[in-house]
């Protein structure tokens, strides 16, 4: 609402005198009243409920019309506060400018007031004058303390020229008479031009003042600077015995930097040089000194100039892989293909294409040789191997580095790996990439996306170093146990190579060729001093270890070596022979006796085959029927997928019973008027209830258990099976076939039923030892499964 709409002008208002300065709308300012004249004017305003007219005095303490200016501001009283010393404080808000046109009363001062309004100005001319004014204000703000950033922003954004003039005049605090001349001037063009001239004069005055001040300081500095510096240097050298350690360090830093200059990116060179110059200037006792020095030394430790220049040779890679690893034919073949492509591109001088930029991820159970494969690659390429354990990593700064503003900041693990390797192109193993965590500290997988993406990792920025690192020359190899736990975006960057479980035969050969010779060397034993026959080694594999890999087997062999070393020294014998008879003297009692099959067939008990992240397992599924109403109970810590499999299996068995394909003994039929499956409650249980179980491969196993209890036919104890089922009874393919069949082989299973599609697709990957040691039968329909499984 405008001021004209509140009061009819000219208007009769009490007059309050301000001693110090002119007020401008829409200012809110406190006014202190300590004289009777102003107090009377205030009381009159409050009594009449009217606004108040505040006019500045000319002399500083005048209280009559002849001693005050005939202009001021019209406003209202927002608050009135009596003070202990007898004064009154009011909070006054100015609304508009006004002029006295008629004097009415002297005690208290009262006058008739009319509004002062600026004359309108052409928009084009107004914008031009405002642009010039704002430009000069910015110059003045740089050399004087008048204008705060908020005030400058207000002047830039405000479009009302009158308000801008009032803001500036109130800020620079000019003389009262000059302020009065601006106050009563209504020609906006003249006011803006006059204000611009005033600002120019202020700029010149402040510039001269600043120059004089600088000259005075410069003269003092020039006279005293050399004396103080020399005196300080003399005293320091006196105390430290002419210590020039810092100077020597700085020279060494510059020398190292120049050696690396041609291998560094320009922004890296500038950042390190800037920090060395800062270290050179800063005082030794400054709290930042050690932080800057640590940064410089870390940055100069990055091996920009050290590159392994050995040319790729696929023959050497293949030789090293075969020398260090038994079996693992498919993983070794894929690694050889990877380096064959890189070698061909290098020989033909072709820039890296997608084939050479693939990130390999080796996945499989623990102890099958994922990290050792990467180690063999590093040996063949004559490069350093750096292992970065990602298990449980949840702080994104662990990979990218901490910003130097934090206490205890340090570079990320990638940068630390390069410094440790002393090469800019080592082999980096990202171990357990499937066990990354995510928390409020960030998502490390997002940083890995940049590290592993060939399109981005040439400019990887470490927050601690504050410049880009080129990771495109690094060979990254990831390892994982379960790839389903890796975020999908990260999986998209990698190619997966599966390392399956070892068969007992493969473990035997690995132990003979690699583990035993390696452990003998570690324990200082000669081959002639230690004898372990083949049957005893097979016994250790079957009865003392249960694993997909060979890690525990290595520990057991190491235990044999330790005890043998002790026996050689204490008993002074020349040779230690370990066989089945004295094995218990060297190893503890058997930790695992393979669960052999029951000697007889049972109703409702079926051998299923399951995959786990640590290898395959034989999963026994049990089912019983109890008089009831056709309810299905599931126990054994089953996941959602297995629960759905059980429900599907129950529905398929119901259909087969209705179709007469499963014959029900008469003794089971309690009521001829209802279906037999509605007369019993079914309980399906998978033992070892503390272990979670899930996965789409138990469909035919559960179906066979249900068919067994309804038909009262026992299930063959030497048959195991794996496969999912649909509502039509078709057997669907599954994964992890090799691990499952290895587990069946270890448990002396004679016959394994597997989906026909897996038989056609995956049988070639099954070791001959397994295929020759058991009968593997492909099945397409549940009816075939029941034909082979039921007695």
TrEMBL record:
Signal peptide: none annotated. Transmembrane segments: none annotated. One of its GO terms (biological process) is proteolysis. Keywords: ATP-binding, Cytoplasm, DNA-binding, Hydrolase, Nucleotide-binding, Protease, Serine protease. It comes from the Bacteria. Residues 600-791 form the Lon proteolytic domain. InterPro entries: AAA+_ATPase, ATPase_AAA_core, Lon_bac/euk-typ, Lon_lid, Lon_proteolytic, Lon_Prtase, Lon_prtase_N, Lon_prtase_N_sf. ATP binds at residues 364-371. It is found in: Cytoplasm. It catalyses: Hydrolysis of proteins in presence of ATP. Pfam families: AAA, Lon_C, Lon_lid, LON_substr_bdg. Residues 13-203 form the Lon N-terminal domain. It is an enzyme of class 3 (hydrolase). Its main location: cytoplasm. The active site is at residues 697, 740. GO terms for molecular function: ATP binding; ATP hydrolysis activity; ATP-dependent peptidase activity; DNA binding; serine-type endopeptidase activity. GO terms for cellular component: cytoplasm. Homohexamer. Organized in a ring with a central cavity. Belongs to the peptidase S16 family. This is Lon protease. It comes from Campylobacter cuniculorum DSM 23162 = LMG 24588. The lineage of its organism: Bacteria, Pseudomonadati, Campylobacterota, Epsilonproteobacteria, Campylobacterales. The gene is lon.
